[in-house]
Amino acid sequence: MKLNVIDRQILDKVADLHSVPQGAYNIRRDGEALGRHSTANIDIVPKKDKPGIDIFIKPYTKGESVHIPVILSKAGMEDTVYNTFHIGEGSDVYIVAGCGIHNPGNRRSQHDGIHDFYVGKGAKVKYVERHYGQGEGTGERILNPTTYIEVEEGGVVELEMVQIRGVDDTKRNTKVKLHKDAKLIVTERLLTDREQEAHSIIDVELIGEDSSAQIISRSVAKDNSKQVFNLNLIGLNRCRGHIQCDSIIMDNAHVSSIPEITARHSDAQLVHEAAIGKIASEQILKLETLGFTEEQAEEIILEGFLK
Amino acid sequence: MLQVQNLTLEIEGNRILDDIDLNLDRKKLYVITGPNGSGKSSLAKAIMGMYKPTAGSIIFEDQDITDFNITERANLKIGYAFQQPPRFKGITVEELLELSAKNEGQKDIEICDLLLDVGLCAQDYLHRQVDGSLSGGELKRIELATVLARRLKLAIFDEPEAGIDLWSFQKLAETFDMIHEKYDTTIVIISHQERILKLADEVIVMREGTIAEHTTQDKFLSKIARDADCRCRQGCEKGALYDEVECYR
Ligand SMILES: Nc1ncnc2c1ncn2[C@@H]1O[C@H](COP(=O)(O)OP(=O)(O)O)[C@@H](O)[C@H]1O
Ligand SMILES: [Mg+2]
User: Fold this and answer.
1) Cβ contact B90–A218 (<8 Å)
2) What mean pLDDT is predicted for residues B213-242?
3) Which structural domain, as residue segments, surrounds residue B208?
4) Is the pLDDT of residue B8 over 60?
5) 3-state class of B115 per DSSP?
6) For ligand 1, what atom is nearest to the CA of residue B42?
7) Which residue segment(s) compose the domain that A208 sits in?
8) Does a structural domain hold residue A30?
9) Would the CB atoms of B88 and A285 count as touching at under 8 Å?
10) Which residues contact B218 (CB under 8 A, 6 or more apart)?
11) Helices of type H across chain B
12) Residue to substitute from B41, B84, B99, interface A, most A β-carbons within 10 A
């Protein structure tokens, strides 16, 4: 497998990879598989009926990782891919699935990743999805991920979704079903600037008894960018859920934060908190008194907030 | 080292500081006291550059810094510990202290020692975020540590005693002494506390935006000694309004 400079830049940004990863991986570039590797416990199989792969993780696989980064490096690339994860009972795995677009031209590049997760009983999954765009062209960089996750009894899913700069338009749709004792933790980090738009929809159904969900979303909207968050929890059983949605707004940006909680069981405990505001001027002042300029202070505050 | 000359500050038509003249000498420890609302914090902020004066000038080490912004003054080694420090979501205590020392050209700062100096156990605090999860007292101590992390020529502490217990106070007094000795820092402490007043070389009493008195510690303390009988002093907010000289709360 040959990686060029742009491939390496993108892999570094979306998957913290500097070379070919350890463990199982599938690297997709411009709609084609660039490299694929299965391990004894993790089998990656291309789908027959549509673009994409099936990832089979054997029960009780522990401490292994799967990297499935996607690179779009041509202008005018429109790529839709279907990936299905079958995560065996009692396993404990780390999955990294970023997408980076390098758009050198003026036609739009778009990647729609449709990810399905079946998380077996008692399995633990950490799933990291990072989005990144670069390129000198004027062509739009568009990423529309759709993620379905079903978590069986006692499973734990940690979802980290990060998009910092470079993506012009994103519509992120995440649906999660939690069965008995299943647990979900979502951390979302989003920064938009210029004319970018981002829309994030997360629907979580707490189906099983004692299931729990925590969604922590932090975002920064700069320039003329627009962000909309629809974060919904539906409690169908004795369960606990918490949404925390916190945005810093700057310049002429628009942010709508629409958390929604619905309970259909009297023992459902659901909380949502949403806040939008600009950087507190006292924070800037404090950092200035430590010798930083106003611009540096702003950088420090945003970096901390989005960490 | 610092001369405040005919300094007047008006905010929205209200006169907050009224024609203040103040001279600070190198390496002395000053305590500014006076009733709430008398302009102590405003004077400190004007020195730090956080408020632009309506009239008058500020000279620091023979340089007119009246038009300098906050960052420029910070780089001249003037520092200010806020009375009400801001919180920073996502930034840990360790990171904030590293940021504080960053512009000092220091490589390894002893963050653990800094925290000890303000009475906090480093283990418990290094990785905590400087956000709503800290109590007011904890936040206040970390604020002090951010200023102690710097190598300042002039350090102003705005009511540092809030949230500091007795033991830490002793430690803090030692720390003030230490930076005083080691780095030749001129220290200004805004305070109501008799224990802090005892650290002072000179005491400055403010009232209604003016300096009502600028005297030595001995003279000041002998005046308030007479006031020791007043059992209401601790809780008395009006203090100076009723008692012209002695009550400094
Ligand atoms: N930013 C401001 N806007 C309006 N009024 C202010 C501002 N800062 C201070 N003041 C007013 O100036 C007076 C002095 O305040 P301050 O300097 O905080 O007093 P002290 O620190 O002695 O308690 C008070 O009446 C206060 O309300
Ligand atoms: Mg004050």
Assistant:
1) yes
2) 63
3) 2-247
4) yes
5) helix
6) 17
7) 70-305
8) no
9) no
10) none
11) 40-48, 70-75, 93-102, 111-117, 122-125, 136-148, 166-183, 194-197, 217-225
12) B99
CATH of the domain at B69: 3.40.50.300
What span, in angstroms and rounded, lies between the C-alpha atoms of B7 and B9? 7
CB contact under 8 A, B90 and A307: yes
The ipTM of this complex is 0.89
Q: What is the pLDDT of residue B245?
A: 41
DSSP state letters, B47-108: HHTSS--SEEEEEETTEE-TT--HHHHHHTTEEEE-SSPPPEEEEEHHHHHHHHHHTTT-S-
* Domain membership flag for residue A60: no
What is the reported pLDDT for A307? 85
Nearest ligand 1 atom to the CA of B39 is: 17
Going from the Cα of B246 to the center of ligand 1, the distance in angstroms, rounded, reads 23
Nearest to B83, CA basis, from B160, B168, B175, B30: B160
Q: How many separate domains does chain A show?
A: 1
B36 touches ligand 1 (CB under 6 Å): yes
Q: Is residue A225 part of a domain?
A: yes
Q: Residue B43: nearest ligand to its CA? A: 1
Which range, of A69-73, A197-201, B29-33, B161-165, averages the lowest pLDDT? B161-165
pLDDT band with cut points at 50, 70 and 90 for residue B134:
very high
A vs B, Cβ pairs < 8 A, gives: 58
Facing A289 at nearest CB: one of B74, B90, B95: B74
Whether pLDDT at B59 is above 50: yes
User: What's the rounded mean pLDDT across residues A107-132?
Assistant: 95
Is the Cβ–Cβ distance between B44 and B38 less than 8 Å? no
Q: State chain A's mean pLDDT as an integer.
A: 94
Angle value at C-alpha A133, between A132 and A137, nearest 5 degrees: 175
CA of A22 to the centre of ligand 1 (A): 60
Pocket test for ligand 1, best of B9, B18, B42 (most atoms within 8 A of CB): B42
- Residue A57, phi then psi, degrees to nearest 5: -110, 120
Structural domain total, chain B: 1
Task: Tell me what pLDDT residue B236 has.
Answer: 54
Amino acid at the residue A295: E
Instruction: Output the residue whose Cα is nearest ligand 1's atom 13.
Output: B37
Q: Which amino acid is at A111?
A: H
Rounded to the nearest angstrom, the minimum Cα separation between B103 and chain A is 6
Task: Report how far ligand 2's centroid is from the alpha carbon of B83 (Å).
Answer: 6
Greatest alpha-carbon span in chain B = 52
pLDDT at B246 over 60: no
Banded pLDDT at B232 (limits 50, 70, 90): low
B166-183 vs B136-148: helix axis angle to the nearest 10?
10
On chain A, the residues whose CB falls within 8 A of the CB of B90 are 218, 304-307
User: Residue A42 domain-assigned?
Assistant: no
Pairing of strands A32-37, A24-29: antiparallel
Residue A126 pLDDT greater than 90, yes or no: yes
**With contact defined as beta carbons under 8 Å apart, do B80 and B153 qualify?**
no
Residue of B nearest to A281 (CA): B86
Highest mean pLDDT among A110-114, A266-270, B136-140: A266-270
